[in-house]
Each structure stands twice: as structure tokens, then as C-alpha cells.
Amino acid sequence: MKPSTKHQAPSQYFCLMQPNLSASWLLQRAMSAKQQTDVPEDFINELLYANFSCMQRLGDPVLRPFLQDVVQFGALSKTLGLVMLTRPQILPSIFKQVGVPVLLDWSRHFLMLGYYTFLATFADPIVRSFLNTLPSKTSFRWKQHLEAWKYGAGLDYKL
């Protein structure tokens, strides 16, 4: 007997990607100790120092969300860019620690973080203006998308 799906919402509307969460795993991976690696033993401390120094230079809008485990595209982009400009010597160790395939895979999550930020910032106001003209079921589904974009971009955090 097939279960009734009449009153169940389609899972496709609730299983949207959350790139703010998935983009943070590279940070965890880079800072985890590995056996048999040829990176300097003080690499993790150096990486933490480089990241926090750059975030501190960039100010509270970058540092405070990160300290509360909120990953945002703008803040992450600025931090990564400043680390690359001010501490380029750390990049080879990052590649050794996490590996090129992992960095390439992570890039997909980073791009999705940017995409969700774009959607939450620019598409949300347009879609929201039409919600009251849609049938309630369709309006509900779109509201779920809007919330997923906002949360997935880390834009639910207020400074």
C-alpha cells in the first residue's frame, strides 16, 4: 500500500542546500591535525593567526559573525582575499593540508554561498512583492525558498 502524500509537502521544497553551513567545513578540515603530513607543525596556529588578524583588520562586520559561527559570502571573500594578499606564503601549506581535490569541491559550496547571497539580496524583494497574489500553497513554497536563501547565505545574522 502506497502512503498518502496528499497532505505532505514535497521534500524538494525543504531540502534546499545551506551553503553557509557547508562552506564552513573547509575551515574545520584545514585546522584538524593530520598524521604524516609535511606541513609545518605550527601551521594551524599560523593559519588561525593569519585569519584572525585579517578579520580584525576588516572590523566587526567580518569578525563578529564568524565568532558566532555564521559564514557569510562577503565576510569570507574579504578574509580570504586579505589572507592571500598579506600572507601568500601560507597558501602552499593550506593546499598540502586539505588537498587540491578538497579545495575544488569546497569551491562549489563557496560559489553557492555567493549565489544564495545574490538571491537573498536581489531576488527576494522581487519575489516577496508578488507573494500576496499567489495561491496560498504556492506562496508558502516561495516563502520557504526565501527563508532558505536568507539562512543559506548567513543573512539571518544581525550585527
pLDDT < 50 stretches: 1-15
Q: For the terminal residues, how far apart are their CA atoms? A: 52 Å
Shape: elongated
Helix content: 55-70%
Q: Which H/E pattern describes the elements?
A: HHHHHHHH
Radius of gyration: 19 Å
Into how many domains do the coordinates divide? Answer: 1
Please tell me the overall pLDDT: 86
Give me the number of helical elements: 8
Can you count the beta strands?
Answer: 0
| Structural class computed from helices and strand pairing | mainly alpha
User: How much β-strand is present in the residues?
Assistant: under 5%
Q: Profile the largest sheet.
A: none
Identify the notable features of this structure and list them briefly.
159 residues; mainly alpha; 0% strand; elongated
What does this structure look like?
This protein is an all-alpha fold and 159 residues long. It has one domain. The chain is 65% helix and 0% strand. The protein contains eight helices and no strands.
Summarize the structure.
With 159 residues, the protein is mainly alpha-helical. Helices cover 65% and strands 0% of the residues.
Give the helix/strand layout.
Layout: H1 19-22, H2 25-30, H3 43-58, H4 60-67, H5 73-86, H6 91-98, H7 100-130, H8 136-152
Helix pairs in contact: 3-4, 3-5, 4-5, 7-8
